[in-house]
Amino acid sequence: MTTTYDCDVLVVGGGIVGLSTAYALTQAAPGTRVTVLEKESGPARHQTGRNSGVIHSGIYYPPGSLKARFALRGAAEMVEFCARHGIAHEVTGKLIVATGRAELPRLHALVQRGREHGIPVRELGPAQIAEYEPEVRGLAAIHVGTTGVCDYRAVAARLAELSGAEVRYGSEVVRIDRRASLGVAVRTADGTVLRARALVNCAGLHCDRVARLAGDDPGVRIVPFRGEYYELARPGLVKGLVYPVPDPAFPFLGVHLTRGVDGSVHVGPNAVPAAAREGYDWRTVRPRELAGTLAWPGSWRIARRHWRYGAGELHRSLSRRAFTDAVRRLLPGVSDADLRPSPAGVRAQAVLRDGTLVDDFLFRASPRVVHVLNAPSPAATASLPIGREVADRVLSTLRHP
Questions:
Q1: Which is nearest to 186 in space by CA: 35, 396, 362, 373?
Q2: How many CA atoms within 13 Å lie on the side-chain side of 388?
């Protein structure tokens, strides 16, 4: 039998990782026909377009991890990509500030890690903090020189153009039929059927669902966490990027301040469970998705393990004053009136059955399919090397189906 293919590779998901993968495929193997299926009406409508726009240095991530390797390489590549294509960006550096004595050993550990990674790090005392950020207070800080900001929506749109891929918006995948000897057939919500030699799952918030559609057990469940942001009414209070010392027991960085490429300063995010995969506010509840989250044993184990941390995050979500108090640890001059609500984001956090929060990028391959099952921050920073990694895996699948 002769199979007619509509393209060589179908990429499910038009966020920055999916579009970077499409770009990498056509760069690595010119002539490869790639089609991207995105259920929204344009690119980067979820995690990519709703984050704080930071180009991360890689200082937080353990040596040898995929996050460290891809973020270190990806940060430099992202700056170069933005410069080459005229995309708004700036290398600002950032401060990581310790406001309590218990944080000082963790801050020193970050200094050591930064040096292991070859990242320019400068240790600061209180007076030196004021040289960078006059309104910020802390016991000690480090300045990380390679951190920056950019417009990731513009990056995603440019990758779509450069890839030469056919990008189909409004194309939600509802069924996948995979045959190891033939390839994959995908049906979208409007009834269109597309056939390809291989498929890449970059569906972000829905990647575990797409994996199951393809007949694979992902071994994880995406548990959505909403990150709520405010915007500073007085952006002049902050000159660049200011972060707290992260808690190593939880994979979220805590409330930080980020001056974007447009000059506005975003404050956040916190991290609260969302009642829908795309639950950008408390009013958005999708019973089927919520039931799926609650049915996953790992969700309850997270709750038992991190209930104190979660209670604090929930309090800050429901109380602007509590959120303001958290910001005042870094920026004492801020008031409730300085915080204006800003659009929230939702982090697609992969969780194992035992409640472990997957803390690194996670890729899995099966015949004719490559799944990206965990790609939270710093995935936007690392998107160019991630795209190459996924492209290498899918091209290997094409060579050895």
A1: 35
A2: 11
Question: Is the separation of the CB atoms in 230 and 325 below 8 Å?
Answer: no
Place of tokens 């004021």: 130
* ω into 246 cis (within 30 of 0): no
Q: What is the pLDDT of residue 397?
A: 85
Residues 6+ apart with CB under 8 A from 73: 382, 384, 385
- Phi and psi for 223 in degrees, rounded to 5? -105, 115
CB 184 within 8 A of CB 214: yes
pTM comes to 0.95
CA dihedral 117→352→376→227, nearest 10 degrees, is: -120
Tell which residue, 341, 376, 332, has the closest CA to residue 266. 341
Model confidence pLDDT, tens digit, residues 347-382: 999 999 999 999 999 999 999 999 999 999 999 999
Q: What is the CA radius of gyration of the chain?
A: 21
- pLDDT of 308 reads 81
Give me the residues paired with residue 141 across strands.
97, 124
